[in-house]
Design a protein that fits this description.
The structure is a single chain. This protein has 28 helices and six strands. It has a six-stranded parallel sheet with strand order 1-3-2-4-5-6, sandwiched between helices. 62% of the residues lie in helices and 4% in strands.
C-alpha cells in the first residue's frame, strides 16, 4: 500500500472543509464538527500504515511526528498572539498566554477541560481552542507505537477485542462525564483504533470497492455532517459516524476514485488540511470580533482560511518537515542528528512561553482574592447549580442567535450606518414566534441567557432594539415604531404569550414615566416578568474597566441616584400580574472583578462575557436557594 494515498488526501479535504464551514456558521452544517472525528479515524489508519510499512525506532517515529506538526503550529501560535495583541490589546491576557502554552506542549485538551467554565462565552473567543484536537492526536502518537506492536501480533479477532475495549472505555467516560469524553484522549482512543482496524482489515488483501460504493459512502458522510448535531448521544453522535468513517477510509485506501478526490483543488486542500485547520479558528475569531457576522464576514473567514492555510503549508509545513530537514542535515554532514533541531525548537518554545505568560499577566495584574461564596468554580461541587447551568446549555446558543436576527438599532441606522437593521428589515414571523416574549435593549446579551435559565427554554419571541427603552410616550422618535409594536402586544385583549420578559436600562426612566409604564403593564392581560439586574454607573467606561478589588465601594457610590430610585420603585411593586426578578446589588459593595480577576463590566451599562458567566452563576445560586426554600416550606 502506497505511503501517500491521494484518496486519503481527498478525505482530509472533506474533513477540514466540514470543520471550517461549521465554525464559520454552524447553521450551514450542524454536524460539521464531526470532521474532527473523521480526522481521528484517518490518523489511526495512516499512522498504523506508516508503522507497518517502515521499520523505525520509537525516537525516529516521534521525530517524524514532531517535524510534521510543530513548525506550522508554532508559527500559527506566535502569529495569532501578535495579531491579537496589536489589534485588541485589552483582550490579550494571561488566559491567552496559558492556553498558548498548553497548545505548544500538546496539553490544551486537558487545559480547556479543566478551565472551561459552564457555557463560557469567552472560551469561544479563544483563538487556540481548536488545539484541543491536535493535542489529542499528539498524545495518541506517544502511546500508539506500543499499542501497534500488540495489535500487529494478533489476528483480526484479537484486534476487534482490543477495539471493543477502547469503545467500552469511551462509553463509560461519555456516560459519567460527557465533557471529559469530548476532550480526553482515552475517550477518543476508539476512533484511532477504528482507523487502525480498518488498515489491518484491508492491508495485504485484494479488496475491490466499486467507485460508486465509495461515492455513496462519501455522500453518507456529508449527510452525517448535515443531519447530526451536538445534541445526539454517544451511539448516534459518536459510534455510528466513526463506523461509517472507518469504512469510508478503508474503502478509499483501495479505490483511487480520481473523479471524486483526484482534482487539483481537492488534492491541494487535502495536502494543506493541517495548515488550514491551524489557521481557521484564529481567523474565525478575529473576523467575528472585527466585522461581526453576516455574508461578508463569512466570505472573509472562508477565503482567508484557505489562502493563509495554503500559504502556511508551502512556507512552513512542507519545507520544514522531517524529510526536508533530513536532506538538509545530510548535506551538512549531520546525518541522524535531527534531535538537535528538536531540542532547539523546544528551548525556543519554552522561552517564548515564559515571555507570553509574563506579558499576559501584565494585562491581568489586578487579581481579586477568591471568596468561597462567590467563586464560580464552586458550581461543580453543588450538584443542583451544576445541573441548572448544564440544562441551560442547549437553550442559550439558540436564543442568542435569534437575538442577533431580531435586534435593531434604528438610532444608528437613521444616523447613516447601513449595517444596522430597521424594524422593517426583521422577519416578523420568526421574531414574534415563541411561547414567551422578550423585550430588551442592548442589555439583551445578558438577558437572553438568564431567561433561558429561568424558563429552561429557547422558544422566545424577541423584540430587541439597542438604545430603545420600553416607555410610554417616548421622546425617542427612532424608537417609536418598536415601542408601538411592544405596546400592541402587551395591551391586546388576549395575550399571545405565556410570559413577557422585560429587560431594560431603567435608569433612563423618570419617576412619572416609570409610573405610567407600570400602570400600563398592570392593565395588561400578559404575565410580566421584569429583570432588574443591570448596573448604571456615573463613571466612564474606562473607569469601570479599570476598577479593581472584589468588593469595590467606589462602584456602588458611582450608581446614579436616578438608577437607585428606579430600583427602589421596582422593589416596592406589588402588582398581581407583574413579577420583578431582583439581581442587582445596590445596597452594598459591588464586585468589579470575577473571582478569577476578570472585569465584570465592559462599560457602565454592559457586562463582559466573563461578567455574563459570573451573573449566570449568581442567578443559578439564587434559583437553587429559592428551590430549597420552597421544598422546606409547608404546603
Amino acid at each position: 500500500m502506497a505511503n501517500r494515498l491521494p484518496s486519503i488526501d481527498g478525505l482530509r479535504s472533506l474533513a477540514v472543509l466540514a470543520v471550517v464551514i461549521f465554525h464559520v456558521n454552524p447553521a450551514w452544517l450542524p454536524g460539521g464538527y464531526l470532521g474532527v472525528d473523521l480526522f481521528f479515524v484517518i490518523s489511526g489508519f495512516v499512522v498504523t500504515m506508516s508503522l507497518a510499512n517502515r521499520r523505525m525506532s520509537y525516537p525516529e517515529f516521534l521525530a517524524r511526528r514532531f517535524y510534521r506538526l510543530a513548525p506550522a503550529a508554532g508559527v500559527t501560535i506566535i502569529a495569532t498572539l501578535v495579531a491579537f495583541y496589536i489589534t485588541f490589546r485589552g483582550m490579550v491576557d494571561a488566559e491567552h498566554a496559558y492556553s498558548a502554552l498548553a497548545s505548544i506542549f500538546a496539553v490544551s485538551n486537558i487545559y480547556f477541560m479543566l478551565h472551561a467554565g459552564y457555557f463560557d462565552t469567552a472560551l469561544h473567543g479563544n483563538p487556540f481552542l481548536h488545539f484541543w484536537s491536535l493535542s489529542v492526536e499528539e498524545q495518541f502518537y506517544l502511546v500508539w507505537p506500543a499499542v501497534f506492536f500488540v495489535l500487529a501480533r494478533r489476528g483480526i479477532p484479537g484486534q476487534i477485542v482490543i477495539l471493543l475495549v477502547f469503545m467500552a472505555i469511551s462509553a463509560l467516560i461519555s456516560h459519567y462525564d460527557p465533557q471529559q469524553a469530548f476532550y480526553l484522549t482515552p475517550a477518543r482512543a476508539y476512533q484511532f483504533a477504528a482507523g487502525a482496524l480498518g488498515y489491518f482489515v484491508v492491508s495485504g488483501r485484494h479488496v475491490s470497492v466499486p467507485a460508486s460504493a465509495l461515492y455513496a459512502l462519501a455522500l453518507a458522510t456529508i449527510a452525517s455532517f448535515l443531519l447530526l448535531d451536538e445534541t445526539r448521544g454517544w451511539v448516534i453522535g459518536g459510534l455510528l459516524p466513526t463506523a461509517l468513517y472507518t469504512i469510508l477510509v478503508s474503502a478509499a485506501a483501495k479505490t483511487p476514485a480520481e473523479r471524486l478526490f483526484g482534482s487539483a483543488p481537492v488534492q491541494l486542500i487535502g495536502k494543506a488540511s493541517y495548515s488550514i485547520y491551524l489557521v481557521h479558528w484564529p481567523i474565525t475569531v478575529y473576523v467575528t470580533i472585527v466585522f461581526g457576522s453576516g455574508p461578508a464576514a463569512y466570505a472573509a473567514m472562508f477565503a482567508f482560511t484557505l489562502m493563509l492555510g495554503i500559504a502556511l503549508f508551502y512556507s512552513v509545513e512542507k519545507p520544514l518537515n522531517f524529510y526536508s530537514l533530513r536532506r538538509l542535515t545530510d548535506r551538512m554532514g549531520l546525518r541522524h542528528r535531527l534531535g538537535g533541531p528538536a531540542v532547539s525548537l523546544c528551548a525556543v518554545a519554552l522561552a517564548v512561553s515564559a515571555i507570553l505568560v509574563s506579558s499576559g499577566s501584565v494585562t491581568n495584574e489586578t487579581s481579586a482574592p477568591r471568596r468561597p461564596d462567590m467563586a464560580i468554580n464552586q458550581a461543580d461541587t453543588v450538584p443542583e447549580i451544576h445541573q441548572l447551568l448544564t440544562d441551560t446549555a442547549s437553550h442559550r446558543s439558540v436564543s442568542t442567535a435569534k437575538l442577533w436576527r431580531c435586534n435593531t438599532f434604528e438610532v444608528g441606522r437613521n444616523q447613516g450606518n447601513e449595517e444596522y437593521k430597521l424594524l422593517a428589515d426583521l422577519d416578523m414571523q420568526d421574531c414574534l414566534s415563541g411561547k414567551n416574549a422578550i423585550f430588551t435593549d442592548s442589555s439583551g446579551m445578558v438577558a437572553v441567557p438568564i431567561i433561558a435559565m429561568l424558563d429552561k427554554s429557547s422558544d422566545f419571541a424577541i423584540l430587541a432594539s439597542a438604545g430603545c427603552a420600553f416607555t410610554t410616550g417616548s421622546t425617542q422618535t427612532d424608537c417609536s415604531k418598536i415601542n408601538a409594536l411592544r405596546m400592541e402586544i402587551v395591551q391586546s385583549g388576549q395575550c399571545s404569550y405565556e410570559t413577557v420578559y422585560i429587560s431594560m436600562n431603567f435608569s433612563s426612566y423618570t419617576d412619572d414615566s416609570l409610573g405610567r409604564f407600570l400602570d400600563m403593564l398592570e392593565a395588561s392581560s400578559c404575565r410580566i416578568r421584569i429583570l432588574d439586574q443591570f448596573p448604571d454607573f456615573a463613571a466612564k467606561p474606562s473607569q469601570v474597566m479599570a476598577a479593581s478589588g472584589e468588593d469595590n465601594p467606589s462602584l456602588s457610590s458611582a450608581l446614579k441616584p436616578a438608577a437607585i430610585a428606579r430600583h427602589e420603585q421596582l422593589a416596592t411593586l406589588k402588582q398581581p400580574n407583574i413579577e420583578v426578578i431582583h439581581l442587582s446589588t445596590i445596597d452594598g459593595p459591588l464586585p468589579a472583578l470575577t473571582p478569577e480577576g476578570k472585569p465584570i463590566y465592559r462599560d457602565q451599562y454592559h457586562y463582559t462575557p466573563e461578567g455574563v458567566n459570573w451573573l449566570l452563576y449568581r442567578v443559578a445560586k439564587m434559583l437553587t436557594a429559592a428551590g430549597r426554600d420552597d421544598r422546606a416550606s409547608p404546603r
